[in-house]
Design a protein that fits this description.
By secondary structure, the protein is an alpha/beta fold. Helices cover 41% and strands 18% of the residues. The chain folds into two domains: 244 residues, Spore Coat Polysaccharide Biosynthesis Protein SpsA, Chain A (Alpha-Beta Complex), CATH 3.90.550; 73 residues, no CATH class. The longest helix is centred in the C-terminal third of the chain and has 22 residues. The N and C termini lie far apart (43 Å).
Length: 332
């Protein structure tokens, strides 16, 4: 471990509170965690910070790796899988920093991004949280780093084809992506979101309604309801490999959980009618897509091809919309 890693670890008793508490949730992603931490200690300068890693009952050796390579990192072992939201809340309870950086393990810094984000958050009294540009490993932009809050309409129309035809359509909420200056966004990605600690506490942290997916949208929604703004900061970029933990799950499970999280967001923030309408819209969208896919499956041995996998995906979503597909922690 480097000298910098030793000097920028958990603040001890009597130490000055750090500017920033970096919270990373691990679930079978210890290799990603290691690379993420290496990039943090390599590129972060001019910032006092602590790092907290929460393992959500994956027991993948992450604690042992941290003890050997990053002894200054505070490691929290959760005895049960409390999900992304619950694990981040556990980390926040132990954090001593002025601000909280909620960072996915499958991210890597390429520059002093945390200093830039901290400066932007501190310079605007209206800001409750900020996020930056996220890119894939090949350098392409992840447009999901800014998002609109879910509605029945934007979820029904959400597809690669429609987004490709109308990339700047207002319903996607991507306008801040096309600016060179920080702009307010409805929501920023939970893969990297820096939030003022007082604001995080004021809105009650992450909601327990979410197990995985949607908790970042809900947090940004609550921050805006509390009278603060959420900003997209385009001046700095972080690599987000994506799916570091969810690759351990089946793709159909992830697809269903994404829809379940949107349903919960609408139910808790827009009302029961919007949530039920959303399920009905997803049922209709699923039927439409399955009808379009079927002609590509007439030949022998097509079930394992991309159309076959797409059919399985939309069949699972259709079953979920009818209440026939089980989901984790279905009651809330």
């Amino acid at each position: 471990m480097t000298k910098d890693a030793e000097s920028c670890g958990q603040a001890g008793v009597g130490a000055i509170a750090p500017e920033l508490s970096i919270i990373i949730v691990n679930w079978k992603s210890s290799d990603y965690v290691k690379k993420c931490l290496q990039s943090i200690y390599r590129f972060t300068e001019g910032l006092q910070f602590e790092v907290i890693v929460v393992d959500s009952a994956s027991y993948d050796g992450c604690g042992e790796m941290l003890a050997h390579d990053f002894p200054g990192v505070l490691f929290i072992q959760s005895p049960e899988n409390v999900g992304f939201a619950g694990a981040n809340n556990l980390g926040a309870q132990r954090a001593t920093g002025r601000d909280l950086l909620l960072l996915n393990p499958d991210t890597e810094l390429r520059e002093n991004s945390l200093r830039v984000l901290a400066d932007r958050l501190g310079s605007c009294s209206e800001a409750g949280a900020v996020g930056c540009r996220l890119i894939n490993a090949d350098g392409s932009l992840q447009t999901s780093c800014v998002q609109a809050f879910p509605t029945v309409l934007n979820q029904f129309l959400d597809s690669e084809l429609i987004r490709g035809l109308f990339p700047r359509w207002r319903i996607w909420g991507t306008a801040p992506l096309h600016s060179s200056q920080p702009l307010p966004a409805e929501a920023v990605s939970g893969a990297c979101i820096l939030v003022k600690r007082e604001v995080f506490d004021r809105v009650g942290g992450f909601s327990s309604h979410y197990f995985m997916y949607g908790e970042d949208l809900d947090l940004c929604f609550k921050i805006r309801l509390a009278g603060y703004r959420v900003y997209h900061v385009p001046e700095t970029t972080i690599v987000h490999f994506g799916g570091g933990s969810t690759r351990q799950s089946t793709s159909n499970f992830s697809n269903v959980m994404m829809r379940e999280s949107v349903y919960r967001f609408l139910r808790h923030n827009r009302g029961k009618f919007s949530a039920v309408s959303y399920k009905a819209a997803m049922a209709g969208a699923s039927v439409m897509r399955m009808i379009l896919i079927l002609p590509f499956l007439l030949g022998p041995g097509q079930r394992a091809t991309q159309p076959g996998l797409s059919l399985q995906k939309w069949l699972s979503i259709f079953r979920w919309s009818l209440g026939l597909e089980p989901v984790t922690r279905a009651s809330s």
